[in-house]
Amino acid sequence: MPLAYSLPTDLSPATVVNASSLLRIVALALISGAAIASRLFAVVNFESVIHEFDPWFNYRATRVLASKGFYEFWNWFDPTAWYPLGRVVGGTIYPGLMATSGVIYNVLHALNLPVDIRNICVLLAPGFSALTAWSTYMFTKEMKDESAGLLAAAFIGIVPGYISRSVAGSYDNEAIAIFLLMFTFFLWIKALKTGSAFFGTLAALFYFYMVAAWGGYAFITNMIPLHAFALILMGRFSSRLYVAYSSWYAIGTLASMQVPFVGFQPVRTSEHMAALGVFGLLQIIAFAELVRTHVSSKQFQSLLYASVIGMGILGALAIVGLTYKGWIAPWTGRFYSLWDTGYAKKYIPIIASVSEHQPTAWPSFFMDLQLLIFLFPAGVILCFRELRDEHVFVIIYAVVASYFAGVMVRLMLTLTPCVCVCAAVAFSSVLDTYIDPVEPDAVEEAETAGDGAVSASSTGISTSSGSTTTSTKKGKKAAPAAQAGPLDGLVSTVSAVVSTKKGDKAQGIFGGDTRLAVILNALGMLLFFVLHCTYVTSSAYSSPSVVLASTNPDGSQHIIDDFREAYYWLRQNTPETAVVMSWWDYGYQIAGMADRPTLVDNNTWNNTHIATVGKAMSSSEEVAYPILRKHDVDYVLVIFGGLLGYSGDDINKFLWMVRIAQGVWPDEIQEPNYFTAKGEYKVDDAASTTMKNSLMYKMSYYRFAELFGGNQAVDRVRGQQMPRIGPTLDYLDEAFTSENWIVRIYQVKKDDLLGRDLRTANAFEQGKKRKRSKPMARRRAIV
Amino acid sequence: MLLLPFLALFFLPFCIAASVDADHAKLVQLAARNNGVIRLDEHSYNLLTNPKRTWSASVQFTALDKRRRCGPCKEFDPSWNAIAKAWSTVPAAERDSHFFGTVDFDQAMSIFQQLGLQSAPVVQVLPAADGSRRPASGRTNPIALDFSQGFDAGPLAEQLSHYTPIPIPYKAPIDYSRVASGLFVLLSFVAALRFISPILKSRWTWAVITVLTSLVMTSGFMFVRIRGMPFNGPNGAWVAGGYQTQYGQEIQVVSMIYGTLAAGFLMLTLVVPRQTSPSRQRMQVYLWTGVIFVMYSVLVSLFKEKNRGYPFRLLL
What we know:
Chain A is mostly helical. In chain A, 62% of the residues lie in helices and 5% in strands. Mean pLDDT of chain A is 84; it is low at 445-488 and 773-783.
């Protein structure tokens, strides 16, 4: 066999093996380093701060865990959330994340390393991303080989689709969940391949960890049964499958029921029924197989098959019947809305209102996955080519996850690992083919070259006979014909590829230039991928959203710190028992940073309570005031971006407040009333009266016009000119407005001491007399 | 002619006092005549909206005449009639305390003017203004229903049930043609199973299905479906400006680009190495490398079109 380039021949095989394993370890270490480093933009650009909304709750819970210990945390009742209801935190969360950081914290302190709990929380996600890279390496190794594994690890280490949920400071369940997801899948594949109950049990244990850490565990709960079911349908039932699945299901289900928040759901809800059903089916099939090996009669076997199918159908019917009877809860709203995409908007506006539950347009896919997104189908085809049991898993994963990612932006996260694996398989196949120095024998070259010449000339003849043209034109036509020449043999080659039999024809690449071209192209693409990932990570995914950044005219960075300014104002200037009302988005932040009781927060379990806040915000002052007083509200907090152009403010979210309130009080709050007669959503002079009288509008624009000192006031988010005379407030007092007016806090006035209506009292203070007909008449009489 | 309004004004108090019950009887009669929907003109509309009414009503304002070219009106009218018909089946005591009416623009233009209605269809609910069913909040002004969930009868009946004495017993009729076609497809599938089973057993059938699904899904198909985006923009533009949005045609273009790129890679790995002639192989290698490079540049420039701030570009 000729070689395209020479290899050193004086190396012993042992040296090669040792060197390659060393290189692998070095490569994995470097990948981990890159994965961690690229997630630190947020810390470098801003500071070591917890991001966004949910992480603030997780951080607060972790602080309780670290300071008071696990049992205190487990029994923690938080009276400040959902005032006046309170929240049993221990029983309503997935404790995996907090427990993980708690363990790390205690281990470090046992080693006399006094690390602050905040830093552990901030850096947990980058740390676990390194582990994710490693587990993806292990998973891909099972699919193809080590080199594909390394590529997959590198991809997932820096791909923006995963970084978006795991930058430093984004202390959320997903931070550790993707590692657990990939590692559980790896263990499942390992268990299936080896038929070992040990790996099945390990898979169950990591499944338990996953259940304790993230609500998305239902993805595993359904992926593994789906895989097993597909294998059964393909006639690939084996004792390996039986052992792996039974050990995973039995131990995993029992373990997952130990998490209080999950409880008896694994046997009572529809999400988990697929796993149970496949478990039953496997037992029936295993029994049938057992009988088959012991019984020889042909009739008996057919009878057996019929009974197996019958039992399967009966079992399925039993599950359906139990669901109708109410013994098994039907699909929950969040889950159901994945299938019936209009469901959430109709029945649970609160789910539809969350921005990460919106469907995904294609630019988001490209932004998050870049070149991986088109390598992904190629990788799937390569999986089909081999189609071992584990490839079936990747194929199912690819279909299911790409659908889910299309329906919800948030589920891009579950698609990302699969895309990385498939893309790595495709990419490493290209590299394998073109790096391999072995050239095939070119014995048939002369013959085939002659063949090509004949076909080319024949096409040439046909074109020339078809048209009587000048020679120059003929030459032009001959060129595409010759170009089509290499494609002639395509059909036969494709059919040879498709047949998947290892052909006895020699395979390989001739020459060095071809190798160089493909490899340079591939490396160029990889380089571009790295640049893209770095750019996206630094510009789009590293903003803490608690601290905002803008650029000064001279190019330097200007930090906008209004949120923390306002929350610390609350912390330092209000009594500890002061109840703060805001839209639910800011509940966790107020609890975490201001340490004050809130009416509603990001754990949206009580729709009515949220609708109450929505109603108060969207009603007039007179209607809202009794609601505020009844809920002991002392301060109302609104986010207003009109001055700065911060588009995520409350006026833009206002319609959702109206919609959610309308869902509970349809005869008091009606969405159409908040639009102008032409059906536009406006805040300027043309705004509807209901809009102008709503508490939210008044609080947002109170004294806004004064700021412009007689000039035309402009709302920079909505680009509308505000009326010259702004709204007035009778029942609330402005308490605090942050530097850039992003956060505005109002104090709710107490009842008037003289028992007057607050509006009248206010009018009296301003020196306006009540209009009475009698005094007027008297005065006139005097004159 | 001038006398008439004066007369009406003069008689108004008497009319109201004496005729509430008479009005009610009349409305019941009108409703019974037409499957539960009262065709309202100016006169009967005033009967229905009697300020001392003890009944509630829901009124559809529509423009069904062909000249008005109101597509949504025609779409909505059957749902409205179906709800009203469902309501006419409830016991008489409840039935006669809530009425369904239809005001057509061409029969009662003045009502539209009076209410300042600019568009149709509109559904208004008039709560009872007097008697036991007067709402506790005392609000008796009309409530407009929203069509945010479309013109289907089901959700609308549910919304209306908030205002009726008992929920409207509306059940969506079984769509027999759909059931039949479903059954037909299923049966023909079972019948053809023997012939198509080699196709079903072929892994490449499944490969094609899988790859097409994932290509279409990753090109934003679900976004277009859920949001109901049009296939094209106005004046033939097919790229929706903006990172968070897209048109239907972009699905096709983007999935084509993805597909070509994936095919390029597959050709390089699977097909090209089987080529036994070095010269042809070389040509194919350069061809596919070129295809990949060019298509990738096209993709990046398309992305740049959507996301203006994107700093990178290849050839284009």
